[in-house]
């Protein structure tokens, strides 16, 4: 098969890139070994996160660091034998987490985050997926009065600094929004800008269906190699090979597999994450996604039940799945909401592709004409997928980009 552009990876980022290129008149083939939306795009907490303008950094407070080092909390777990393998990445992450550097990174990411709601809205409307979207934000709960005061100050700073809309909730206000929350949740912040999704996998599949309805092609093939050939590219798959004028690598945590043979090695770590669905106890309902920041998990009302999503598990990508982090989160989640029995027999596990500077890689590969990149979105893949698709499509078609692409250039790692 010969096509103008092959997009490799059918997660939310790859599907969004394909749609935006298609919208600009390009002939696009979307290729993935799995059906669209079956990787990290399926297993996230369902937040289109307009409110999280500050990336998830390594804490600089020594008490928080000791808590992580103990390897006993729910927010971050690690395999001690894996840490030496990612030591350079951890060092880069630590440096990028310095407050001054973090503020710069947040400013660089902000145009993409500001665009996330509008870009999703356009695709949701075109694909007829409004039933999957809620536009009433999410709630960050706190467990003490002191923490509520601190959260209130942070909420005020975010409103004034980034134009966000939020309400500080005491126990009574929280109970009005979420009557089933237990007294351990003493208050919280209602972040009102974000959208939430009741089935992230279905959202990505719906976007992929829109791509096909508009004439796009999706191929279920595992890509083993890409190589420049003449003025274009050869894409080798399990079923043969294809020629293309250009290639987009949007394979998330697996992107280095195809890039390394070409001389690129992006410092990319797949942060493992888990989720499991639970039935609520009795007549209890959860109306909003709820983040327990102090403990490190999210509960989201989903089509399949209450989805409990964990923080970060730093272990080898191919290490066996375990229940350690999920069990820790479940115990603490039951303190604030009456979770019933699990829906599934075992948890889902996926990889969040993260760079040490907390920014995705978006743009040309630099050393190879016709090779383009879109991966490394960490916790914000669902949030930034459509905005990334627009930015990369604008670069590939010579339009003026709506955001400065230079902070996301792979050149920072070459």
Describe what is shown at a glance.
This protein has 414 residues and is an alpha/beta fold.
Rg over CA atoms, rounded to whole Å, is: 21 Å
The proportion of strand residues reads 25-35%
Number of strands: 22
Assign an overall shape: globular
Mean of the pLDDT scores? Answer: 95
Q: Helix amount, in percent?
A: 25-40%
Judged by helices, strands and strand pairing, the structural class is alpha/beta
- Multimeric status of the protein: single chain
Low-confidence regions? none
Termini separation: 32 Å
Account of the 3D structure:
- This protein has about 425 residues and is of the alpha/beta class.
- The chain is about 30% helix and about 25% strand.
- The chain has eleven helices and 22 strands.
- The protein has helices at about 10-25, 40-45, 60-70, 85-95, 100-125, 145-160, 170-175, 200-215, 255-260, 325-335, 380-395, and strands spanning about 1-10, 30, 45-50, 75-80, 135, 140, 165-170, 185-190, 195, 215-220, 225-230, 230-235, 240-250, 270-280, 290, 295-300, 305-310, 310-315, 340, 350-355, 360-365, 370-375.
- The strands form four sheets. Strands 6, 7, 8, 14, 15, 16, 17, 19 and 20 form a nine-stranded mixed beta sheet that branches. Strands 1, 2, 10, 11, 12, 13, 21 and 22 form an eight-stranded mixed beta sheet that branches. The protein has a three-stranded antiparallel beta sheet with strand order 3-9-5.
- β15 and β16 form a beta hairpin.
- α5 crosses α8.
- The chain starts with a strand and ends in an 18-residue tail after the last helix.
């Amino acid at each position: 098969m010969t096509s103008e552009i092959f997009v490799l990876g059918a997660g939310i980022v790859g599907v969004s890139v394909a749609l935006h290129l298609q919208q600009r008149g390009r002939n696009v083939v979307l290729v993935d070994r799995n059906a669209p939306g079956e990787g990290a795009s399926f297993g996230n907490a369902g937040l289109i996160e307009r409110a999280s303008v500050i990336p998830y950094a390594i804490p600089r407070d020594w008490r928080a660091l000791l808590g992580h080092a103990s390897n006993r909390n729910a927010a971050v777990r690690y395999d001690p034998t894996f840490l030496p393998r990612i030591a350079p990445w951890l060092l880069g992450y630590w440096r990028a987490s310095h407050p001054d550097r973090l503020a710069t990174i947040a400013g660089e990411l902000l145009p993409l985050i500001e665009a996330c709601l509008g870009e999703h809205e356009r695709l949701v409307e075109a694909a007829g997926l409004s039933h999957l979207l809620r536009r009433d934000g999410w709630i960050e709960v706190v467990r003490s009065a002191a923490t509520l005061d601190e959260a209130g100050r942070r909420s005020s700073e975010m409103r004034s600094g980034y134009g966000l809309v939020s309400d500080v909730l005491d126990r009574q206000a929280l109970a009005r929004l979420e009557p089933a929350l237990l007294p351990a949740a003493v208050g919280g912040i209602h972040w009102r800008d974000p959208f939430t999704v009741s089935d992230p996998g279905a959202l990505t599949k719906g976007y992929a269906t829109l791509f096909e309805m508009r004439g796009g092609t999706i191929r279920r093939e595992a890509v083993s190699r890409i190589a420049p050939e003449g003025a274009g590219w050869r894409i080798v798959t399990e079923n043969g090979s294809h020629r293309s004028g250009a290639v987009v690598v949007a394979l998330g945590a697996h992107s280095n597999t195809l890039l390394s043979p070409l001389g690129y090695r992006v410092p990319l770590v797949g942060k493992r994450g888990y989720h499991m669905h639970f039935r609520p106890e009795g007549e209890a309902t959860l109306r909003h996604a709820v983040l327990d920041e102090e403990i490190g998990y999210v509960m989201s009302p989903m089509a399949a039940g209450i989805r409990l999503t964990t923080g970060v598990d730093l272990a080898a990508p191919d290490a066996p799945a375990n229940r350690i982090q999920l069990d820790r989160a479940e115990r603490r989640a039951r303190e604030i909401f009456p979770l019933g029995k699990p829906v599934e027999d075992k948890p889902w596990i996926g990889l969040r592709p993260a760079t040490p500077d907390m920014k995705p890689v978006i743009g040309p590969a630099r050393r190879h004409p016709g090779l383009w990149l879109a991966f490394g979105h960490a916790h914000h893949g669902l949030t930034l997928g459509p905005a990334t698709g627009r930015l990369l499509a604008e670069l590939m078609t010579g339009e003026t980009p709506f955001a400065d692409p230079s902070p996301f250039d792979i050149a920072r790692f070459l």
